[in-house]
Design a protein that fits this description.
globular, homodimer, three-stranded antiparallel β-sheet, DNA-binding, 3 strands, 146 residues, mainly alpha, Arc Repressor Mutant, subunit A
DNA sequence: GTGAATTGAGTTGTGCGCAATCTAATTGTG
DNA sequence: CACAATTAGATTGCGCACAACTCAATTCAC
């Protein structure tokens, strides 16, 4: 038998599959809101505090302008956000919520419940998973820089 | 304070971030092999057993023909696989490894070690994370069907 | 056996995700 | 002040993901 790595032994593939499965569970709910999953993430950040610059959104989500610029244009076309050049620093673009964008927050409150219901894990297991994932992500990011 | 869901409370976002961070850690090694992460996953499946049909690869990885067809054409252009119509059932396309494809397995053996080294988790924690993720993925898939 | 239904791949279109590059605005240095 | 370096955002290009659709091969029902 070869010593080639086996698919099902790879934590990386387990992460990849779980992440895809989780967004698939969210998809029907998000469809009814007219959002994709990354668009939903951007709205989550803005619901916490706005306006935010493109840079701030990118830092919160780990996305660069190549991803965010067109995504934000689509959110603007949906009437959920507005993009305005900052006056203090004309390089910056502040992303503001519109009234429609703020109102969407109500409909989105039910979204994360779906995952908890479908997860088949106890609250304690979910919470432990969450904290392990956060530590893993932080460690991988710092390893990546070296 | 609003009851809008908070980004950092979402397990789904933790999965999404961890998955991206893990593939980012793999990227430099895979670059040196000339593979993307999904291409590496396909090669992993083929190193275990070949030939495999497009359908079988899709079942193993959770990908459909819309993703796999062009990906397999790129692997074929790289000289790593060959696509041959099955004789028993002309609808099927069997994916065979070339000699170059088989040889790549050696260079890839070091890939998963990178994650373990960078993870910052004990072997026990990694193993528990792995099993939790597999149960989560299974539960999410079965929830998705209903 | 023939037509309907199913199955296996491929194609098209949309939206990420990320590297690389570009431009304009700002900051830092002499 | 001038000019190099940095920063913010946008653009381009490529490769997934995934839905929707097409087409051909096979199977199923009668």
């Amino acid at each position: 038998m070869s010593d080639a790595p086996r698919l099902n032994h790879q934590v990386c593939f387990a992460l990849y599959s779980a992440s895809k499965a989780a967004t698939a569970v969210y998809r029907p709910v998000l469809d009814s809101l007219g959002l994709t999953y990354p668009q939903y993430l951007v709205m989550l950040v803005l619901w916490e505090e706005e306006p935010r610059t493109v840079r701030e959104l990118g830092a919160a989500l780990g996305l660069d302008s190549g991803t965010l610029s067109p995504l934000l244009k689509r959110l603007e076309a949906l009437g959920l956000v507005e993009r305005r050049r900052s006056q203090e620093d004309e390089r910056r673009v502040d992303i503001h919520l519109t009234d429609a964008g703020r109102e969407l927050s109500g409909g989105a409150a039910a979204v994360p419940k779906r995952l908890a219901d479908a997860a088949g894990l106890s609250a304690a297991e979910l919470s432990q998973l969450h904290s392990t994932l956060q530590r893993l992500t932080a460690a991988l990011h710092s390893a990546d820089k070296q």
